[in-house]
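note to self — DONT lose this again. spent like an hour looking for the file last time. sequence + predicted structure for the chain T wanted, 242 res
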Amino acid sequence: MKKPLILALLALSGALFAASQEVDELDRKTADALNQAEVGHPASVEAMNKSYLAALQKLEAERQKDGDLKQLLMVRDDLKSFNETLEIRKGSSFPRLQFLRDAYLKQFHRLQAQRLEKRLALLEGHRTALVALQKKLTRSDLIPEALEVEKALEVCDPKIEKARGELKTWMEVKPERAIKELSKAGKEEGAETEPKHREKTPAPRHKDPEKTAAETVPAPVPEPAKEPASPFDAPPEPAKPE
């Protein structure tokens, strides 16, 4: 009588262990994906900061070339302020400068929203995988194992609700208050990261000299892909009267 009971207990414990391992593996994969998303966000902010500085420097050169002292000093003041404190000032009588300020704040807001959306999507995907595992175990009549997955769902659900709340709250924040809201929460933005290397263009293949002239007619060259427009690209200014 004892031997069948022991075997049954061993089988049950083995099944529970296997289910626990599956849950642990799902947890690990989701945690890794969340960490990767968090690491990538500061890099995106840093790239945006560099683009913004480049746009200010371009505007500075244009104002200097035009000999516009007032606007040149405005741009240089913004450059100094951003380099020292990452501060975006308010209200400028120079439309091009104000355009750049507004574009930066909108882009900053958008990047943070993307970060929160990515986090929510990963957590919801994790929950979907747990539910699928629970259904599989239930169909196999592995009820204790399915109940173990239920515990994992009870841990996951509050995280999803928190992520939804954070995203909802952020989407209600106006872009001009985005940086201040993150500063209040004590979150740091703009960590330095290594720049990504560009992919090398593959070398063209040599034509086979044995092919006929008809076969060696070159195919039409496709137009190169256009670079995505920068959020800091302003419409051209109307020409100034002499």
